[in-house]
Specification:
alpha+beta; phage-related protein like fold; 6-stranded mixed beta sheet
Length: 258
């Protein structure tokens, strides 16, 4: 994420190629490693909210515009986050394994190699998702002691019962994605059928999802004497895009079940 001033453009630098090493006879000339970079810039969009209250109610303390402005700002942030996730969701299915995978429910044979890919590079990976999806990870930790008998660790059973999900899966940290409702509905902000696998060894700037904010939230207010209302319009310029250099430094797993 980058924040720039009004009228400025954010540029994201992408690594295209890396340095390679070669083994050769002494005195030989090694091949050169061309390190290239490219940059992208994003044009911004506008997200806004317009809380309105009755003037009489506001003047007599029956309506608090400050609280409504705060709520409007919060709803704008949720809308930005949802937009960014939708951009990522549209791009990820075009990635090859192990950066994207899918299946009916959580398919261990597909998910595990995606986690192992980032674990090999050092440090822990992090698996993030909606509670309904990460709650299923515990079911993938059992082992078969005898034909038709699946056993689970007592510690995992207790952890699942206490938190609703296990905190570690095959060495990766598991984090619940806070997923509140949006637009005064019961529909959550984020897709409840997607897991995100993030490498801890890679700098956050290398991840493919790029978000830019142009300036801060700005506002305009007006009073309408015809219908006795006072309203404030809040605006924030932003945009999100997926941009990849040598590889997408994250993984996305999609549950295809209903």
């Amino acid at each position: 994420m980058k924040r720039v001033g009004f009228g400025d453009k954010a540029q994201f630098k992408l690594k295209v190629d890396g340095i390679r090493a070669y083994i050769q006879a002494k005195g030989s000339t090694t091949a050169r490693s061309k390190v290239a970079n490219r940059s992208i810039s994003l044009e911004t969009l506008d997200v806004s909210a317009r809380p309105v209250v009755n003037i009489v109610e506001m003047q007599n303390g029956l309506a608090n515009m400050a609280e409504l402005v705060q709520e409007g700002s919060y709803q704008m942030l949720l809308k930005i986050n949802q937009y960014a996730q939708n951009v990522l969701s549209q791009a990820a299915p075009n990635w090859a394994a192990p950066y994207f995978g899918s299946g009916q429910g959580l398919v261990k044979a597909t998910l595990d190699p995606m986690v192992y890919h980032w674990m090999r590079m050092g440090g822990k990976a992090t698996v993030i998702g909606d509670i309904a999806l990460i709650a299923q990870l515990g079911e993938l930790t059992g082992f078969t002691a005898a034909v038709g008998t699946k056993q689970f660790s007592d510690a995992i059973i207790n952890e699942q019962n206490a938190a609703g999900f296990i905190g570690t899966y095959i060495g990766a940290n598991v984090i619940q994605l806070v997923n509140p409702p949006i637009d005064a509905s019961d529909v959550p902000v984020y897709n409840t059928k997607q897991l995100y696998i993030l490498p801890t060894m890679a700098d956050a700037t290398m991840r493919p999802l790029k978000v830019v904010f142009e300036g801060d939230v700005f506002s305009n207010e007006t009073t309408n004497i015809d219908d006795l209302t006072f309203e404030v319009r809040l605006d924030q310029y932003f945009n999100a895009a997926v941009a990849i250099g040598d590889r997408p430094y994250m993984g996305v797993y999609k549950d295809l079940s209903n």
